[in-house]
Amino acid sequence: KLLSTRAICQKIFTGNSLNTAYKRMLRLKNGELIQRYFLSSMDGYAWGLTQKGLKMIRGRLPELEAEIHLSENPDHDFHVTAFPLGAWLEKMPDGCSVFSEQELRCLSIELYPSWIPKTKTHRPDGYWQVASKNGPRTVALEFEITQKLLERYDGIKEFYAANSQVHDVIWVVPTITFANTIFDKMQAGNQSSTHHHFVLINAFLKKGWQAEFSLGKCQGLSIENFLSQNPRRRPADCSHKSATCLLLDTKKYPQD
Predict the structure, then answer these.
(1) Region of residue 135 (left: phi > 0; alpha: psi -120 to 50; beta: else)
(2) CA–CA separation, 250 vs 200, rounded Å?
(3) β-strand 126-130 against 166-173: which pairing, if any?
(4) Distances (CA, A) of 153 to 87, 140, 188
(5) Buried b vs exposed e over 109-118: b needs ≥16 C-beta within 10 Å?
(6) Nearest one of 177, 166, 227, 168 to 200, comparing CA atoms
(7) What is the reported pLDDT for 113?
(8) Low-confidence residues of the chain, pLDDT below 70?
(9) Which of 51, 50, 52, 47 is nearest to 82 (CA)?
(10) Fewest Cβ atoms closer than 10 Å to its Cβ: which of 25, 46, 92, 153?
């Protein structure tokens, strides 16, 4: 729904300089097709479509059950776009897929892929399909920056208990205390085969997919190694040119 200048340049304007790509984006902005959003949590900016832009692409989209709306919570919309793409910004690995929160919201369940639950009783912030030695695995994303009433997590727990095709859930949370609260809620009397893994939002914003899980069965494993089904644990770092760091570079006009 929202992407940074650098991520759009890298993904859409491949082969162009940042300066050339940025000028093309400004022409789209001046044509009122895209607009810039301020991200208060990152003191930066991201881009999204305007109503005019949405109208222009509407005919290229599949039939929608619900209309696409402009961003009402830019920080959340930016995070739930950037997190699932991560290191896969430029190229999706063979056997892997992403199904976004926006697609879950707007498409009929008849158009959902076969590897996710065909229900709207609960809507995660997206899904991944990842390749593993035992076959494809479905991983859900729960971006939980503010805590809900504890009883509301009962419904989420029941959703994953009833949908065994979701093998894992990645929770993005602000503190380890919050992570422990949700983890205890998910585990209490739980007979589900779904595994819950927790990463702190500040770790993701600093290290991208090299951030490590702070709680859960895969504690100490990086997000990237987990989604690539690589059990190798190693120190986390984030190079300037890594795909996730391009996604998280929210400067209005990033330099090379």
Answers:
(1) left
(2) 19
(3) unpaired
(4) 30, 15, 11
(5) eeebeeebbe
(6) 177
(7) 97
(8) 190-193, 230-242, 254-256
(9) 47
(10) 92
Position 25 scores a pLDDT of 94
- Which of 165, 137, 142 lies closest to 155 in space, CA to CA? 142
User: Looking at this protein, which amino acid is placed at residue 104?
Assistant: L
198: Cβ contacts below 8 Å, ≥ 6 apart? 170, 171, 172, 173, 176, 179, 182, 183, 213, 214, 215, 216
Q: List 47's β-bridge partners, or say none.
A: 3, 36
Rg (CA), the chain: 18
Q: Are strands 137-143 and 166-173 parallel, antiparallel or unpaired?
A: parallel
Contact 10, 22 (CB under 8 A): no
d(C-alpha 244, C-alpha 256), whole Å: 16
The residue type of 141 is L
- Does the model's pTM come out above 0.70? yes
| Dihedral angle over CA of 182, 187, 190, 193, nearest 10 | 100
